[in-house]
């Protein structure tokens, strides 16, 4: 956590880019999985499980990206 905090202080543009990346993916997730609250059907439950899987995979790939910015 200390290394991440140092990176945040040294590279504010990188931090802003990561925040914007998360916001954009959030809007895509909202658009793709809107109104999946019908818990009575098996298809809706499977759709929600797919959404959770997609969010987990997306967060893992975001965390393991290289932290070097080359201009």
Give an overview of the whole structure.
It is a single chain. The protein is mainly α and 71 residues long. The model has no long low-confidence stretch (mean pLDDT 75). The chain has a domain at 25-64. It is 73% helix and 0% strand. The protein is built from three helices and no strands. It is elongated and about 50 Å long. The longest helix has 22 residues, at 42-63. 0% of the residues are buried. It has helices at 2-10, 12-32, 42-63.
Helix content: over 70%
Unreliable spans:
none
Mean pLDDT: 75
Rg computed from alpha carbons, rounded to a whole number of angstroms: 16 Å
Given helix and strand content, the structural type is: mainly alpha
Strand portion, in percent? under 5%
Terminal-residue CA separation: 26 Å
SSE run: HHH
Give a count of the beta strands, DSSP E runs of length 2 or more.
0
């Amino acid at each position: 956590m200390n290394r991440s905090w140092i990176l945040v202080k040294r590279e504010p543009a990188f931090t802003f880019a990561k925040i914007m990346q998360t916001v954009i993916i959030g809007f895509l997730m909202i658009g793709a999985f809107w109104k999946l609250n019908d818990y009575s059907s098996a298809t809706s439950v499977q759709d929600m499980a797919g959404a959770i899987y997609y969010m987990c995979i997306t967060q893992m790939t975001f965390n393991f990206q290289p932290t070097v910015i080359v201009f």
